[in-house]
Amino acid sequence: MPSAPFTSNFAQTARAWLRTFVPLPISASRRERIKSCIGALLGLFLTEWISRQTLGGFNPWFVAPMGASAVLLFAVPSSPLAQPWSIIGGNLVAALIGVACARWISDPGLAAATAVALAIALMFQFRCVHPPSGAVAITAVFGGPAVHALGFGFVVVPVLFNSMLLLLMALAFNNLSRRRYPHRPPEPAVQHHTRDVPPTQRVGFTRADLDAALQARGEFLDIEEDDLEAILVAAQLRAYRRRFGNVLCADIMSRDIVTVRPEQPASEASHLLARHRIKALPVVDEHRRLEGIITQSDFFAAQRDTGARRLAGTVRQLMTRAVVTARADQPMVELAQAFSDGGLHHAPVIDEHRHVVGMVTQSDLVAALLKDGAMAAAD
Length: 379
Prior knowledge:
The chain is 57% helix and 6% strand. With 379 residues, the protein is mostly helical. It folds into 2 domains: 30-176; 249-378, CBS-domain. It has a 3-stranded mixed beta sheet. Helix 15 links the parallel strand 3 (326-327) and strand 4 (346-350). Helix 4 packs antiparallel against helix 5. The radius of gyration is 30 Å and the shape is elongated.
């Protein structure tokens, strides 16, 4: 008879193993799920309708694997498996291999298995892995007399034709519904056109660390490396907020703020910048409500455009109207990424009526971090 500890350990191991069969919760919002359903409905319906009107008949002009492709293109459009080259290249490779195996291997079962295996190998090689393409390869083998009669024409019509139509539907729908498709990570807010990575990627883990970890893992992950990196950076920022979330903008901001009015001469604003050794001035109305900001960069740009050593005109003509602002009760860390990767140097602090009550600069942020680091070292 087995001992009780052995039985208990076996039961625990079995339960842990069975729990691996339970899928993780899907993080997609309800809106994204509704978009996916509507996109698949419209995409497949219009693709089939256009195929039928253009080519005539229903079978074989619309191949069943398009349903599986629709799941990827409309439900998970950010997946590497759902990108345009994945569906076009994957389906072309699979159709070619499928037709060749159907012609040259007499046993249908062996032909289908060989076609899928070779298609996977070539999809990896050509960076166009698309799971529904495996069904395309099998369709080329088991599609019946109508498919076999097409020969290698099956690759173009219906496979390439249907794939292109479905891709066009996905491009239209996903972009109209404000999804980034083809999926690419957002470009940094400020690009200096150098080889340097953004500041937030120069500390902690780096892209080289991520690439090395993925290479050591050796598995194909259904996520873009850039997206994975962005998720890890966001997680780091969340952890950072937990540590510094009690430091507010009101704690670090300057309160005695030099401001200018829109109607003042630009030369007066330039003089104030030089006199107070600052780089930006909030532009306010007579009630001290924020209307814009004027910086040294605005003067440099204007001098470059006009070629004049001294600028004529008013502050209103030079100021930037779209201003990134902060609230006095806002956690300091919420500005960290905007100051690092976003190229932000100054953030006017305003109240609920847009009255300027302070200014947070990069220097304020650095001073707060240094003070916190010194206190942590002392502890």
